[in-house]
Amino acid sequence: MESRPDSLHRITLTYDKHRSSEASIMGNEVDQAFIQDAEHRPKPTISDAGGIPVIDLSPILRYPIPSDPADPVPDELSDLIAEIGAACQDWGFFQVVNHGVELELLERVQAAAREFFALPVEEKRRVKRDDVNPLGYYDTEHTKNVRDWKEVFDFILTESESDLLQLKNQWPEYPPELREACEEYVEGVKELAYKLLELIALSLNLPAKRFNGFFEDSTSFVRLNHYNPCPSPDLVLGVGRHKDGGALTVLSQDEVGGLDVKRKADGEWVRVKPRPNSYIINVGDIIQVWSNDKYESVEHRVSVNSEKERFSIPFFFNPAASTNLKPLDELVSEENPARYEEYNWGEFFKARKDSNFKKLGKENLQIYHFRKKV
Predict the structure, then answer these.
(1) Does the CA dihedral 152-367-280-178 come out positive or negative?
(2) Quick one: which of 249, 248, 226, 240 has its CA closest to 355?
(3) What region holds the Fe2OG dioxygenase domain (predicted)?
(4) 357: closest CA among 165, 129, 166?
(5) Three-state DSSP class for 290?
(6) From CA 218, how far away is CA 317, in angstroms rounded?
């Protein structure tokens, strides 16, 4: 990126102007591209009662997660593993507190993200993603062929390049602290993700580190989300209904809230109540496939607010692109045969990224496309 010594001064002078107009990706009118079909529009009110389980992770701060299945497990840890398993089976979502990630790491990323999204739109688009490299800034993402009311910035943990995927980070010049804040934050969240992965493995009666090897050279990435206030929150969604294609998602949302989860018990949408210094966890399609449908990836969406902007930061925990996915042999039997054909994660990941990048006019790739007839 070429040097522009006067840019920061110019950005500062125009901050207020662009904050309310040009930095907004949507403006004051709702384009038809954002309008959800009637059956998918959010209701005027949504309950946060009877919501996803809240799980206290403090036992893993006191006891090591046993790597050998023969090792004794303290009662507190055993109870936690059972809680995790029940949440994965009944909800596919849960919220964690006392998770061990330093709050300062999150606050630094949040502050830098606010600065970045407040920049003029042409400044943000200097690091715009494209159909070759899906990383960087983007403001016209689609979910199920309807445009989302949001703007995002994506960065990956491990850069890589192959015939299938080019994954190269595009760090903006401003704010200068964004890159360091993001890189330090992701180390803390990655550690939490591995611990959750091990607890989930134990809840399936597998060795704690059964999944870990799949995540060497991972395609895990972090997204900074910004949702502007919307004049018609009854017609659009910040992110349309979807299921996450990866293994786990570790989400921080701000105090505004807006994440809705489809409750498995009755199919109703439930708002996830914001809790200070907590993370929202959901199992993705990969866990559903590995567990042979014991744990299900659950549909969720983001509703928008007519008065307040909202920020969130999901960490998408994904395996290496070369990983071939199928139900684990240990969880398959004559009575419980494998329900999915084997598929390649890199190809799946690219197909999903392509469908987000542009409107395809058809359903994007889903794991049900690989479901066996059993």
Answers:
(1) negative
(2) 240
(3) 218-319
(4) 129
(5) helix
(6) 8
Three-class SS state of 248: strand
pLDDT 10s digit of each residue in the chain, 374 long?
444 444 444 344 333 333 333 334 444 568 888 999 988 998 877 877 678 999 999 999 999 999 877 788 899 999 999 999 999 999 999 999 999 999 999 999 999 999 999 999 999 999 999 888 999 999 988 888 899 999 999 999 999 888 778 899 999 999 999 999 999 999 999 999 999 999 999 999 999 999 999 999 999 999 999 999 999 999 999 999 999 999 999 999 999 999 999 999 899 999 999 999 999 999 999 999 999 999 999 999 999 999 999 999 999 999 999 999 999 999 999 999 999 999 999 999 988 877 666 655 666 789 889 999 86
Whole-structure pTM value: 0.90
What span, in angstroms and rounded, lies between the C-alpha atoms of 94 and 97?
10
Are the C-beta atoms of 287 and 200 separated by less than 8 Å? yes
At which residue do the structure tokens 């990655």 appear? 190
Using only the alpha carbons of the chain, give its radius of gyration: 21
Enter the DSSP assignment of 77: H
